[in-house]
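Appendix C reproduces, verbatim, an entry submitted by the partner laboratory led by Prof. M.T., so that reviewers can inspect both the input and the predicted structure.
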Amino acid sequence: MGSSGKWIIWTLCACFAARQKTALRITMRESSLEVVRGDSVLLPCSFFTFSDFSSLNVIWTLAPFSSPKTPVQVIVFDHGQVIKNPSLIGRVHFTGLPFSADIILNDTQVSDGGIYRCMVNNPPDTADPGVGELLLSVL
């Protein structure tokens, strides 16, 4: 292989490596959880990013079993926790920021059951797949 062939391979490898560094990866350690009403539960959401945390934005949403087509924003972190769902105020908080997007939900209620989605954005990284999903059942 001539020097131009080696240069092309090196360029392709460098471009691939640069592309890999821009991908934010989200991992849900669990796909479903059960909790007894009144207990606490950890909703895990891990992510890996190559960027610093200066632009980190985490959003959890819930599609409740009672109305799955109407998801509600649960909590948002953008350098400060904001709880959008009044029924969760004082019952939910992040546990591992900025290194994970795990949340803990205290004093669980039957209405807390549903599909939780964890979305992480950390520009300039791009999310791949961008959303983690977890089914929570409250017994």
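The longest helix spans residues 3-21. Additional entries are available on request from the coordinating office.
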